[in-house]
Amino acid sequence: EVQLVESGGDLVQPGGSLRLSCVASGFTFWASEMYWVRQAPGKGLEWVSSITSSGTTYYDESVKGRFTVSRDNAKNTLYLQMNSLKTEDTAMYHCATNRRPTPAQRGQGTQVTVSS
After folding, report:
1. Cα 29 from Cα 42, distance rounded (Å)
2. Strand order in the sheet with 110-114
3. Tens digit of each residue's pLDDT (9 = 90 or more) over 44-99
4. Which residues are within 8 A (CB) of 66 and not within 5 positions of it... i.e. 6 or more apart?
5. Which of 9, 10, 32, 35 could make an S-S bridge to 111, C-beta 3.0–4.6 Å?
6. 3-state secondary structure 70-81
7. Rounded to whole angstroms, how far apart are CA atoms 57 and 33?
């Protein structure tokens, strides 16, 4: 059974930084492409970033240059470093095993709120 547990979300001022973590279990993490998706209030799920098993990274244009995805296969952990946060980054952030994940393919999420 896939289990994904996110942490690190918080209330932060515009321009601030946060680092999200996601601990994975129940599947071969080191061999899996992993994703971050987010859902803002009243909107659908939006792909943010992904990282292949070999470490190649991809970003949505809205976060490119501000967010950095990484992974530690020894710890079965996925990270998202978020810098220069904007109010429009406010959302529930989920790690996932699919770019368009079903509920079973993503964690419960961690809330990021960017507000002054």
Report:
1. 31
2. 11-12, 110-114, 91-96, 34-39, 45-51, 57-59
3. 999 999 999 999 999 999 999 999 999 999 999 999 999 999 999 999 999 999 99
4. 82, 83, 84, 85
5. 9
6. EEEHHHCEEEEE
7. 10
